[in-house]
C-alpha cells in the first residue's frame, strides 16, 4: 500500500465516496436533461418530437452509463451497503429499470418502426422517462428517510418523486433552449418557466421536510458552527433561482449566444442541491446505519480499482467532451448516412 | 403454488430470465461491431458503395440491438444487489474490480463512440468515423472479456484466500487468467461470430425470398455464409478443449452433460436418454459405445466420472440437476452440427461465382430459421455451463442458496412477471423491426418490386402490410 494514502482503510473509502458522489452528480445532470426532454415530448408536435429526441440522440447512452458507474462504484466499493440499499429499494428499483428499458429502446424503435406505430413508441418514450424520474425521486426520498417503511417515509418519497420529476423537466427544457431554435425554442422557454415553479416548490418542500424527518440532519443543519458553514448553500441556491427566473423572462429577446445560460444555471442549481444532500449524509452510506468505513471493500481491491479509475476517468472525460464538441450547435435531424 | 412462495427459486428464475434476455443482444453486437468494421474497411479499400449500403443497413440493426443490450445490462447490474446481495458480500473483493474495469474500459468507450458511429458520418472525417466504428467494436469485445473473466472465475476460482468468510485477492494475475478463462472467452467470442454469421445469412435469405436481388444483399449473404463456414470448425475444436477443461475442474458438470451415473470406462456417447434423478439412472438410452470415453479421454477404456461420486454420505446431492444440463448440451451440439452442414453446403454450392442462384430454393428457406441458430446454441451452451455449476454460485466457495437476499417472495414474483411481460413485448417488437427493415431494404433495391407503394405513404389507419402479394 503506497504511503501517501495514509491509513488506507480511512482514505480509500473517502476517495470512493467522493468518486461515487461525483458520478451521481454527473448522472443527474446529464441523464437529468435527457430524461427531462423525454418528459416534455408530449408537449411538442410530431416534427418537434423528432427534433427533441434528436437533441439527445447522440448523448443519452453515454449519459446513462454514469448511472452504471455510480451503482457500480457502490457495488464494488461498498458491497455491503449496495445489498442493504438495493434490497430496501427493491420495488422502486424495478420500476426505474422498466422505465429505463422502455425509454432506451423507444429511442430506437420510434425511429425504425412503420409510421403508424410511431405514436405508440413516442408514448413508451414518455412513459419510460416518467417512470424513471418518479422512481428515482422516490428512492431519493426514501433514502433520506433512512430506508424505513413508515407512512411518513412513503409520503415524503412521493413528494421527492414529484420534485425530481419537475427538476428533470426543468433541466431538459434548459437543454432544449440551448439546442433548438424558432418555435420549439420559445416553447422550451415557457416549459422552463413553468417547471421552475415546480422546482422551487419541490426544493422548498424537501428542504423544509428533510431536517424535520431526520433528527441527525436537524442537528447537522441547525447547530453552530455548522449552521454558518452550510448557510451559503441555500443562499446561493436562492440567488441562482432568482437569476434563472429573470433570465428566462427575458430569454426570448436575448441573443442566441446566451442560450447556454439557463442550462448552466440549472446545472449549478443541481450541484448546490447535491452538495447540500451529500453534506447532510456524510459519512453515512446507509443513513444512520452504516458509514462508508463500515461498508468499504478490502483496501487491496479498492486500490486496484482506483488505479484503473484514475487512469481511465480523464480519458472518458476527454472523449465525452469530444462527442459533445462533434455534436455541438443546434440539433439537426438524426441520420445514419 | 409452492413456487410462488419460494424467493430462492423465484430469484433464480428472475435472474435466468434477465440474463437470457440480455445475452441475446451482446451475442449479436460483439461480432456485428467487427462485421461493420469489415464493411467499412471494404468500402474504404474498394470505393464500392454497396459495402456502405450494407453498413447502413446493418448499423441500424446494430443500434437497435445495442440499445436492448444496454438497458437489459443495466437491469443485470442491479440484480446483484436486489436479489443476490450475498454474492457481493462474500466475493465482492474479486467481482467488484472486474465489474469496475468493465465499466471504465468498455461501457464508456462503446457508449460515447456509438453516438459518433451512428450519427457522425457527415460530421467527422471518414477516418474518424472508421475509428469510431473500430472503438465501438473494441468496447463490446472488452466488455465480453471482463464479464467472462468474472464468469469463469465463478466456475474455476483462483488467486484468492478466504479470510473471515470473505474472499481476498492474493494474485490478480491468477484471478484474471483463471483456469477456464481462455477457453470460455474464445468459446463465447466464436459463438458471437457464428450467431452474427447466421443472422447475416438469415436476414439476407428473407430479402432474397421476397424478391431482392441487390448486390448489397448478396454481399451480406456471402459474408455470413463464409464467416459461418470458417468459424464453425474452430468452434467445434474450441468447444472440445473447453469440455476437457471442465472435466478437469468441474467433473460433476461433465458427468451430467454425459448423463453418466457411475464412474467407469467404456462410457457411451448418449444420443438420447431420459435421465431419471429419482431412480438415478437413464431411461430409453441410445448411445455410441465408448463414445464419451473416446471424446473425453481419447481412449475407449478411458474412465469418465459418474454422478454418483457427487452424493454425500448423508445422501445430499452435490451435483447439478441432470436432465436440463444433459439436454441443453445436446441442443447446443445439434445446433452446431446444423450450422456446419448449412454453411459448408452453401459455400460449396455458391462456388466459382454461381452466387445465390446456385442454391436450391428450399435451402434459402432453411437459412431463415437458421438466423436463430446462434441464439439457440448460445443459450443452450450457457444453460449447460450455468446449471452445470449448481449447487454452487462460486464453485467450492459459495452456494447459490447462501447468496440470496432477504426479499419478500411477493415482491420477487411481481417484478418477475413485470420483467417477463416487458421482455416478451420487446422481443416481439425487435424481431418485427428487423423484419420490417429487411422488407423496406428489399423494396428499395428492387425496382420491379411487386408492391411498389412505399410504406411511409400508407394511411395511418391501415394495418401495416408490406409483404408483397399478401
The neighbouring-strand order within the major sheet of chain A is: 1-2
Binned strand content of chain B: 5-15%
As residue ranges, the low-confidence spans of chain B are 451-470
Largest sheet of chain A: 2 strands, antiparallel
Overall mean pLDDT of chain B? 86
Query: DSSP helix count of chain B?
Result: 13
Main beta sheet of chain B: 2 strands, antiparallel
Envelope shape of chain A: globular
Number of domains of chain A: 1
Write the element-wise H/E pattern of chain A from the N-terminal end onward: HHHHHHHHHHHHEEHH
Annotation field: number of helices of chain A: 14
DSSP summary, beta strand count of chain A = 2
Number of domains of chain B: 1
SSE class of chain B: mainly alpha
Determine the mean pLDDT of chain A.
86
Please tell me how large the radius of gyration of chain A is.
20 Å
- Beta fraction of chain A: under 5%
Enumerate the spans of chain A where pLDDT stays under 50 for 5 or more consecutive residues.
Answer: none
Q: How far is it from the N-terminal to the C-terminal residue of chain B, by CA?
A: 45 Å
- Helicity level of chain A: over 70%
Explained architecture:
The complex is a heterodimer of chains A (337) and B (470). Chain A is mainly alpha-helical. Chain A has one domain (3-326). Helices cover 79% and strands 1% of the residues of chain A. Chain A has helices spanning 8-40, 46-56, 60-77, 79-88, 90-112, 118-144, 151-179, 182-213, 215-221, 226-230, 232-250, 261-281, 292-295, 299-326, and strands spanning 284-286, 290-291. Helices cover 67% and strands 6% of the residues of chain B. Chain B has 470 residues and is mainly alpha-helical. Chain B contains 13 helices and six strands. Mean pLDDT of chain B is 86; it is low at 451-470. Chain B has helices at 7-46, 49-83, 85-119, 126-155, 172-176, 181-209, 215-249, 251-258, 291-297, 322-349, 361-370, 373-387, 409-445, and strands spanning 160-163, 166-169, 269-276, 281-288, 392-394, 398-399. In chain B, helix 3 packs antiparallel against helix 4 (126-155), helix 6 (181-209) packs across helix 11 and helix 8 (251-258) crosses helix 10 (322-349). Chains A and B meet through helix 3, helix 4, helix 5 and helix 14 of A and helix 2, helix 3, strand 2 and helix 13 of B.
Amino acid at each position: 500500500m503506497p504511503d501517501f494514502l495514509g491509513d488506507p482503510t480511512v482514505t480509500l473509502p473517502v476517495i470512493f465516496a467522493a468518486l461515487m458522489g461525483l458520478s451521481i452528480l454527473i448522472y443527474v445532470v446529464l441523464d437529468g436533461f435527457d430524461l427531462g426532454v423525454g418528459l416534455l415530448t408530449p408537449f411538442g408536435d410530431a416534427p418537434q418530437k423528432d427534433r427533441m429526441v434528436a437533441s439527445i440522440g447522440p448523448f443519452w447512452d453515454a449519459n446513462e452509463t454514469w448511472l452504471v458507474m455510480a451503482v457500480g462504484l457502490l457495488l464494488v466499493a461498498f458491497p455491503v451497503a449496495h445489498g442493504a440499499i438495493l434490497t430496501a429499494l427493491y420495488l422502486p428499483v424495478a420500476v426505474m429499470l422498466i422505465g429505463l428499458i422502455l425509454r432506451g429502446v423507444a429511442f430506437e424503435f420510434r425511429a425504425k418502426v412503420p409510421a403508424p406505430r410511431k405514436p405508440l413508441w413516442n408514448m413508451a418514450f414518455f412513459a419510460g422517462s416518467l417512470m424513471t424520474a418518479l422512481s428515482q425521486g422516490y428512492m431519493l426520498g426514501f433514502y433520506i428517510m433512512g430506508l424505513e417503511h413508515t407512512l411518513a417515509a412513503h409520503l415524503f418519497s412521493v413528494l421527492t418523486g414529484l420534485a425530481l420529476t419537475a427538476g428533470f423537466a426543468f433541466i431538459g427544457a434548459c437543454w432544449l433552449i440551448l439546442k433548438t431554435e424558432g418555435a420549439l425554442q420559445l416553447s422550451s422557454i415557457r416549459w422552463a418557466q413553468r417547471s421552475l415553479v415546480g422546482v422551487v416548490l419541490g426544493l422548498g418542500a424537501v428542504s423544509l421536510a428533510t431536517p424535520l424527518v431526520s433528527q441527525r440532519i436537524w442537528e447537522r443543519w441547525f447547530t453552530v458552527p455548522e449552521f454558518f458553514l452550510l448557510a451559503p448553500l441555500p443562499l446561493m441556491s436562492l440567488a441562482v433561482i432568482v437569476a434563472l427566473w429573470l433570465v428566462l423572462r427575458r430569454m426570448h429577446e436575448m441573443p442566441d449566444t446566451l442560450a447556454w445560460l439557463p442550462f448552466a444555471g440549472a446545472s449549478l442549481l443541481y450541484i448546490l442541491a447535491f452538495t447540500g444532500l451529500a453534506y447532510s449524509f456524510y459519512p453515512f452510506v446507509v443513513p444512520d446505519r452504516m458509514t462508508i468505513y463500515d461498508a468499504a471493500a478490502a483496501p487491496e481491491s479498492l486500490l486496484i480499482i482506483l488505479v484503473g479509475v484514475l487512469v481511465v476517468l480523464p480519458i472518458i472525460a476527454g472523449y465525452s467532451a469530444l462527442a459533445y464538441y462533434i455534436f455541438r450547435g443546434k440539433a439537426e435531424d438524426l441520420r445514419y448516412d | 403454488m409452492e413456487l410462488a412462495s419460494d424467493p430462492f427459486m423465484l430469484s433464480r428464475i428472475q435472474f435466468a430470465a434477465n440474463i437470457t434476455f440480455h445475452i441475446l443482444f451482446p451475442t449479436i453486437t460483439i461480432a456485428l461491431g467487427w462485421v461493420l468494421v469489415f464493411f467499412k474497411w471494404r468500402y474504404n479499400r474498394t470505393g464500392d458503395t454497396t459495402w456502405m449500403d450494407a453498413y447502413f443497413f446493418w448499423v441500424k440493426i446494430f443500434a437497435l440491438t445495442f440499445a436492448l443490450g444496454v438497458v437489459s445490462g443495466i437491469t443485470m447490474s442491479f440484480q446483484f444487489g436486489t436479489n443476490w446481495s450475498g454474492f457481493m458480500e462474500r466475493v465482492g473483493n474479486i467481482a467488484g474490480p472486474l465489474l469496475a474495469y468493465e465499466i471504465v474500459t468498455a461501457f464508456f468507450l462503446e457508449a460515447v463512440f456509438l453516438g459518433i458511429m451512428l450519427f457522425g458520418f457527415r460530421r467527422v472525417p471518414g477516418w474518424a468515423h472508421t475509428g469510431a466504428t473500430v472503438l465501438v467494436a473494441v468496447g463490446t469485445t472488452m466488455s465480453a472479456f471482463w464479464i467472462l473473466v468474472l464468469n469463469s472465475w465463478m466456475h474455476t476460482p483462483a488467486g484468492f484466500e478466504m479470510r473471515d468468510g470473505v474472499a481476498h485477492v492474493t494474485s490478480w494475475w491468477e484471478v484474471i487468467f483463471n483456469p477456464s478463462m481462455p477457453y470460455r472467452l474464445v468459446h463465447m467470442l466464436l459463438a458471437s461470430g457464428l450467431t452474427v454469421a447466421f443472422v447475416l445469412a438469415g436476414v439476407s435469405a428473407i430479402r432474397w425470398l421476397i424478391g431482392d436481388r441487390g448486390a448489397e444483399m448478396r454481399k451480406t449473404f456471402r459474408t455470413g455464409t463464409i464467416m459461418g463456414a470458417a468459424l464453425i470448425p474452430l468452434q467445434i475444436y474450441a468447444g472440445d478443449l473447453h469440455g476437457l477443461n471442465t472435466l478437469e475442474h468441474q467433473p460433476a458438470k461433465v458427468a451430467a452433460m454425459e448423463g453418466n451415473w457411475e464412474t467407469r470406462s467404456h462410457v457411451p456417447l448418449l444420443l438420447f436418454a431420459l435421465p431419471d434423478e429419482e431412480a438415478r439412472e437413464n431411461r430409453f438410452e441410445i448411445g455410441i459405445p465408448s463414445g464419451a470415453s473416446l471424446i473425453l479421454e481419447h481412449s475407449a477404456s478411458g474412465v469418465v466420472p459418474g454422478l454418483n461420486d457427487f452424493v454425500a454420505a448423508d445422501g445430499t446431492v452435490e451435483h447439478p440437476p441432470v436432465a436440463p444440463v444433459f439436454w441443453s448440451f445436446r441442443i447446443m451440439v445439434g445446433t452446431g452440427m446444423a450450422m456446419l452442414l448449412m454453411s459448408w453446403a452453401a459455400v460449396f454450392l455458391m462456388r466459382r461465382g454461381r452466387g445465390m442462384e446456385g442454391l436450391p430454393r428450399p435451402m434459402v428457406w432453411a437459412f431463415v430459421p437458421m438466423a436463430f441458430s446462434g441464439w439457440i446454441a448460445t443459450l443452450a451452451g450457457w444453460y449447460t455451463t450455468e446449471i452445470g455449476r449448481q449447487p454452487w454460485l462460486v464453485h467450492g466457495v459459495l452456494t447459490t442458496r447462501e447468496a440470496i437476499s432477504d426479499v419478500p417472495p411477493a415482491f420477487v414474483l411481481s417484478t418477475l412477471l413485470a420483467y417477463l411481460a416487458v421482455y416478451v413485448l420487446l422481443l416481439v417488437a425487435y424481431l418485427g423491426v428487423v423484419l420490417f427493415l429487411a422488407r423496406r431494404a428489399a423494396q428499395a433495391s428492387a425496382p420491379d418490386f411487386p408492391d411498389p407503394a412505399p410504406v411511409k405513404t400508407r394511411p395511418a389507419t391501415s394495418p401495416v402490410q408490406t409483404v408483397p402479394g399478401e
